[in-house]
Specification:
The chain is an alpha/beta fold. The protein folds into 2 domains: 178 residues, Periplasmic binding protein-like II (D-Maltodextrin-Binding Protein, domain 2); 212 residues, D-Maltodextrin-Binding Protein, domain 2. The chain has 21 helices and 10 strands. It is globular.
Length: 483
């Protein structure tokens, strides 16, 4: 999920295993092995292997040793490697005596696990893909460098601004696991919401609906013309939260989403959750969901939607790349924050879910950790951000970087949605804190069954609350809480 087509290998087949790969590619899940878990605890290496610190100057605020080698290992996925190679060239220009060793692989864990075990990891890693290393294990075993020095360093473009002050909302918080240290820099930025064709809405003489009564009216109008209101990835119904979670946040406030993430007792029994479940169930009851949707995978549902068989689909901003071969040239792709219930909602229309993906880390035992952080500082410049966005149709963590470049329709709409949201950007963490709970239990066993008509909203809520309670009581699962 998370620019899935951007960050995963194009050779992946459709199926459950590959959906998990897409999630991992976005930094949503981790796939550790027991050998990795045990080996991290006894890795070798030491400070004696580290490069000497360079002199800190205005142009070198992190004190990079300008003659030390810097090694950068990138995940070789759908984002490609050109954007990173371009950023490496800037590093080499700034430090002409320093050699940069750059490589790209899809096998992050199997390639780098032995080097972590030996205490000789690279200086910068794009820890992504199906073989993503477990962030929680790495941090708990003191294998990651705290990126606070990077965040507090002057930004690449403006020495009067810290790097942290140039980032999009939620990026710093996503990189924290427990407490203040920031272990991860999520470089890509995904906008989640309800995706649609503006051309299709125009043909109905309708605007995107802001209240649920308006949503039902638009769907009824479409139904009379033989068009379904909604479709979704029925085989992977954990796509539904891409619009449902921010709707819950809009209706009940961010604290409702936080309580759900924190596995608080009865969090799922909040009235806002019931209101939103009832609303989605109404789409099923009134026949506004494309027939056969529960049997469709993500590609099939997106294809049907692109063919005009349904108006709306919950998805992330990767959908523009992922469905590029089926979206018509005149489709006029757009995304909106989710429709709310009515004027009693706690947050305004425009409240949207957007968050980071593509996680970069600097190992604690890196020989040239300052160099790895400096490479990230370069990548978080306006020029590098623009380069990334123009080449891979995705935003970055840098809060800007779109002026002067031609944006694709979906990307342009995503930028507009973020501008409309302002401070009302939510970032539910369920999908990267508790993968099994999110996918198999909330998604498949709860929402999937409800939207197929096999559970009522009340039954789905009870089932999901039971799953959440069991997760909260399971001592084998690491638990997280919003700071």
């Amino acid at each position: 999920m998370e620019s899935t087509s951007d960050v995963r290998s194009s050779s992946e087949d459709v199926g459950r295993r590959d959906v998990i790969k897409r999630s991992a590619a976005l930094g949503l899940i981790s796939v550790p092995t027991m050998s990795f878990l045990s080996a991290c605890a006894s890795s070798g290496g030491g400070d004696e292997d580290k490069a000497e610190t360079g002199k800190k100057t205005a142009k070198n605020p992190l004190g990079v040793n300008d003659t030390a080698q810097m090694e950068f290992v990138l995940f070789d996925g759908g984002f490609g490697k050109e954007y990173a190679e371009d950023a490496v060239k800037i590093y080499e220009t700034n430090f002409p005596k320093a050699k940069v060793k750059f490589s790209a692989t899809q096998k992050i864990q199997s390639t780098l696990q032995p080097r972590f075990n030996q205490g000789t990891p690279p200086d910068l890693i794009d820890n992504s893909g199906a073989e993503q290393m477990d962030m929680g294990v790495l941090s708990s075993k003191n294998q990651l460098a705290d990126l606070t020095p990077l965040l507090d360093a002057p930004s690449y473009d403006d020495p009067n601004k810290k790097v942290r002050d140039t980032l999009r909302p939620g990026i710093v918080e996503m990189g924290q696991l427990d407490g203040d240290p920031v272990w991860i820099m999520y470089y890509a930025y995904t906008v989640y919401g309800v995706w649609y064709s503006q051309k299709a809405l125009d043909s109905l003489d309708e605007q995107y609906p802001e209240t649920w009564d308006q949503m039902l009216a638009v769907c009824e109008k479409a139904k009379k013309k033989g068009i379904a209101g909604w479709t979704y990835a029925g085989k992977y119904p954990y796509y539904l939260p891409f619009s449902l979670y921010p709707m819950i946040g809009k209706v009940g406030g961010v604290e409702v989403l936080d309580a759900i993430d924190n596995l608080e007792p009865n969090a799922w029994k909040h009235p806002a959750v019931k209101a939103c479940f009832d609303a989605y169930y109404e789409l099923y009851q009134k026949g506004y969901v494309l027939k056969g949707t529960p049997g469709l995978d993500h590609i099939q549902s997106q294809t049907a939607w692109a063919q005009g068989k349904a108006l709306f689909i919950p998805n992330g901003s990767w959908v523009e790349n992922e469905s590029a071969n089926v979206i018509p040239d005149d489709f006029d792709l757009a995304v909106s924050a989710p429709t709310g219930i009515d004027s009693s909602d706690k947050l305004p229309f425009g409240t949207i879910w957007a968050s980071g993906g593509e996680p970069f880390i600097v190992p604690a035992k890196a020989k040239n950790g300052a160099g790895g952080m400096e490479q990230l500082r370069i990548m978080l410049s306006e020029a590098s951000s623009k380069n990334f966005t123009s080449k891979v149709k995705s935003l970055t963590a840098y809060n800007g970087g779109t002026d002067g470049i031609t944006l694709t329709p979906g990307l342009k709409s995503g930028v507009a949605a973020l501008e409309k949201a302002g401070e009302n950007v939510v970032n539910p963490r369920m999908q990267d804190w508790y993968v099994q709970l999110q996918k198999e239990q909330i998604g498949v066993a709860g929402l999937g069954e409800m939207m197929a008509g096999r559970l009522t909203p009340a039954e789905a809520i009870k089932k999901i609350q039971d799953f959440a309670d069991a997760t909260a009581k399971d001592s084998s699962i690491k638990h997280y809480k919003h700071q």
